[in-house]
Amino acid sequence: MTQRGSQRARRPRRTEGSPARRAEGAPARRPQLARRVAAGKPGLRRNPGKPGAGAARVLGMSTTRRAAVLAIVVCALAFTVAVPLRTYLSQRAEVAEQEQRQAQLQHDVALLEQRKAAVSDPAQVEAEARRRLRYVMPGETPYIVQLPEDAPQPQQPAQPDPVRSGESAWYQQLWSTVGG
Length: 180
Description:
The protein has 180 residues and is mainly alpha-helical. Helices cover 58% and strands 0% of the residues. The protein has helices spanning 2-7, 19-23, 31-39, 53-59, 63-119, 122-132, 170-179.
């Protein structure tokens, strides 16, 4: 075999394939060499048919692997953002609730201040005492006018006391059932 390779004659180099000739637009005999020269860098090859295919070859990853890496990066970013986002939304809801509670308390404070102002007036205090507590000033004669629609409800008769009506107490009844 070694003799066979030595017997093969080398072809003489033609001037058609010279770099000067290739620059003029003539086709090269060896396509790999033509790609290297056209790219301007001897180590990189270009495939004009697929954009981005050169980057995949340089990185040494297929399209599927790049998609998987992209999916992992997106998931990592989503998990990184999810916890602070959840905390932010819960705090925002809590702040809204507290603001609503604060508004309600401010309304209650305003009502109580109005009530305090009303109670600080001596005439108002006297009127409240007469109406609610039915107080009268010394020397006045109190009276109550009762209208027909304000008739008092009949009181229910009181339950008779079992001890007074002749029955025995519960503990006596219990003792009599146990003792026989």
